[in-house]
Amino acid sequence: MKKTKCLIVDDEPAAHYVLQNYIKQNPQLELVHQCYNGIEALNYLRSNSVDLMFLDIDMPEITGLELLATLPDPPTTILTTAYSEFALKSYDFGVFDYLLKPIFLPRFIKSVERFLASQKVETASDICSSFLVKVDGAMVEIDFQDVLFAQSYGNYVKIFCFKKIYVASITTSELESLLNTNNFMRIHKSYIVAIDKIKSFDKNNILIGEETIPIGITYKRALSDKLKSE
């Protein structure tokens, strides 16, 4: 598997520590270099290429946006900053995403997953075959094909697979954004199911494996339309 080469550009060591830790937990990412100001980044990028740059805006000498304006062909960039007022202006520079500090892991994962899905560095099946969630403090990779359904569980989500149940540190909405919407669907405020794993259904419930799962009133029409199209 070809890894995505990442560069961190930030004048704060604490920001480097957070991003370095997040990148390390993702097997599809590789941190190849770290810069502490825009001049260092400019010099590095003159002779090196990266796939993804995590770039702070407010830095001494030249700002992150000034760096982007200087580079003739900047890498795909995710801005990282504590100042939300730069958000709208930043998209004039063609940035991929904008992460507001403090950066929390679920938001980082969502941004990176969107980036990976947009790239053509691997076959479509490789890109979309799995997703990452945090379980017991560690990142776990789960194959889409192994998932039966997911259930809200307080501040966590239980992900039911063929051989194991994972209790992931993520919200149901965040998990929904990671899953392939062609085969996964929210059928209740507390449940997301794999459409191809449904054994049977009636107007109030579906059966997946040995589990009977309720269908929420607001989701009945959409689910019925989806199952008819399958």
Overall tally of structural domains: 2
Q: What multimeric state do the chains show?
A: single chain
| Poorly predicted ranges | 121-127
- Provide the CATH topology of the largest domain: Rossmann fold
Report strand %: 25-35%
Order of helices and strands: EHEHEHEHEHHEEEEEHEEEEEH
The CATH superfamily of the largest domain is Response regulator
Largest sheet: 5 strands, parallel
Number of helices: 8
Instruction: Trace the largest sheet across and list its strands.
Output: 2-1-3-4-5
Please compute the radius of gyration using only Cα atoms.
20 Å
Q: Helices and strands: which structural class?
A: alpha/beta
Strand tally is 15
Give the N-to-C terminal Cα separation.
32 Å
Shape: elongated
Q: What's this model, at a glance?
A:
The protein is of the alpha/beta class and 230 residues long.
Characterization of the model:
The protein folds into 2 domains: 4-118, Response regulator (Rossmann fold); 129-229, LytTr DNA-binding domain (OB fold (Dihydrolipoamide Acetyltransferase, E2P)). The longest helix has 14 residues, at 105-118. The protein is built from 8 helices and 15 strands. The strands form 4 sheets. It has a 5-stranded parallel beta sheet. The chain has 230 residues and is of the alpha/beta class. A hairpin with a 2-residue loop joins strand 11 and strand 12. It is elongated, with a radius of gyration of 20 Å.
